[in-house]
Specification:
The protein is mostly beta strands. It contains one helix and seven strands. The strands form two sheets. A four-stranded antiparallel β-sheet has the order 1-2-7-4. The radius of gyration is 17 Å and the shape is elongated. The relative contact order is 0.29.
């Protein structure tokens, strides 16, 4: 409808290439949350987009995590939600496979999303970086 927003998959863009890389950059052992022992995993991620077209391409790049986005590169918009209170949990905002994850993951972690609304110049490569963390219960 007019003035509404929707994600519509049209086709696979063969003249754009994307890749995602995530690495653990540190961990903290024996953190007590709600009386239970957890390990905090600190992660660093990169999403790279290569535009093989001879014209610029407008893109909205999103990364969703079970954990907390701590930092996003330039112009990255961060959203952090409570898994117990967010009405979008279990809908299109979060992947279907999170529904079956044990409560111990959701109890200590939030759901996060970082979004970049950007223009990828013709023939250029752009990298979007972000840091996030999650807790794992022993």
């Amino acid at each position: 409808s007019v003035k509404n927003y929707a994600d519509v998959s049209v086709t696979t863009a063969t003249d754009l290439n994307t890749s995602k890389e995530e690495n653990e950059i540190g961990r903290e052992e024996n953190i007590k949350l709600n009386g239970s022992s957890h390990t905090k995993f600190n992660m660093h991620g990169k999403i790279t987009v290569v535009n093989f077209k001879d014209i610029p391409v407008h893109m909205i790049v999103k990364r969703k995590v079970l954990g907390t986005i701590a930092e996003a590169g330039p112009e990255g918009k961060m959203l952090v939600a409570n898994t117990l209170e967010d009405p979008a949990f279990g809908t299109d905002r979060y992947p279907w496979f999170w529904w079956e994850w044990p409560w111990r993951y959701r109890g200590a972690n939030s759901l996060s999303e970082v979004t970049w609304d950007t223009l990828i110049p013709a023939g250029k490569t752009v990298t979007f970086e972000y840091d996030w963390y999650y807790y794992y219960r022993h």
